[in-house]
Design a protein that fits this description.
Largest sheet: 8 strands, parallel, barrel
Structural class: alpha/beta
Number of helices: 10
Order of helices and strands: EHEHEHEHEHEHHEHEHH
């Protein structure tokens, strides 16, 4: 049973406390008063998603989403087809887990360039949307910081994500707003408002951009440790109609190496003060 107040919109990604198996994460999050959990697919390895879903519900947590699908582009057709099959399997896992949303890191292929990567992303999304709709699972395109445009994602701004969503115009397709990836964008407020007008803000991820950044992947900061305008961005999302969970998603070798119970206390404290 959750005992702490003011945490009714706090969700934590299992990758944030990576050293914990999902069973431990569920137990500890619930005891700390956390309201929701986003499950990373690696946390389901060797496990029945339906059983994990029941474990989460029995602990009093909400399953917010399953991370991460996508990675559509490739220079080889067979790899593109395998990506479609992998995403369809993930949709089935999300439905069994009870996750209403899959977050998509859409991928990029340096051998074919950004324009072709983006075209293949649109094609891939169009292929899997019928399966998602049938399963009752929504899909959120997550724009990634431009430093990941080589191999991780050719979708690097809210503008690009919005354009894709508007092109496909499907009610099951929206956007995940991740502060780490979009905080720097001078057009961010306008694009968040654009997303909101289409009722497409499906997820909101929070952490902080540290400086100096030791590692671009695994040195994210707790809220309040860096320079991202967290409250302002959250305010724009909520002004646009977003009422969902605030999801703490932190990749950090430093935090993964510490006692995870103490780290969880830091997450809760930082969420209360800054997020």
């Amino acid at each position: 049973m959750r005992t702490l107040e003011n945490l009714d919109r706090l969700c934590i990604h299992t990758i944030t406390t990576k050293p914990w198996p999902i069973e431990t994460a569920v137990e500890r999050y619930a005891a700390a008063g956390v309201a929701g959990i986003t499950v990373w697919s690696d946390a389901l390895d060797g496990r029945d998603p339906a059983k994990i879903g029941r474990l989460i519900r029995d602990a009093g947590l909400s399953t917010v989403s399953l991370c991460r699908g996508g990675f559509f582009p490739s220079a080889e057709k067979e790899r593109r087809e395998e990506a479609i099959r992998a995403n369809e399997r993930m949709i089935d896992d999300a439905a069994a887990l009870g996750a209403p949303l899959i977050v998509l890191v859409c991928g990029a292929e340096p051998r074919i360039g950004l324009a072709e990567s983006r075209r293949q992303i649109v094609d891939g999304l169009a292929r899997i949307l019928p399966r998602a709709e049938e399963a009752g699972v929504r899909l959120a395109v997550e724009p990634l910081h431009p430093l990941y445009a080589d191999t991780r994602s050719a979708v690097n701004t809210m503008e690009s994500a919005n354009t894709i969503c508007e092109e496909l115009n499907h009610p099951a397709l929206g956007v995940a707003v991740d502060i780490y990836h979009v905080w720097w964008d001078p057009h961010l407020k306008d694009e968040i408002m654009r997303t909101g007008r289409g009722e497409r803000i499906f997820a909101f991820h929070t952490c902080d951009w540290k400086y100096p950044l030791v590692d671009p992947l695994n040195d994210r900061g707790l809220m309040g440790e860096g320079c991202a305008p967290i409250r302002e961005i959250r305010g724009w999302c909520e002004e646009s109609g977003f009422t969902g969970m605030h999801e703490v998603e932190i990749f950090s070798d430093r935090y993964w190496s510490m006692n995870q119970d103490e780290y969880l206390k830091k997450i809760v404290a930082a969420y209360r003060e800054y997020a």
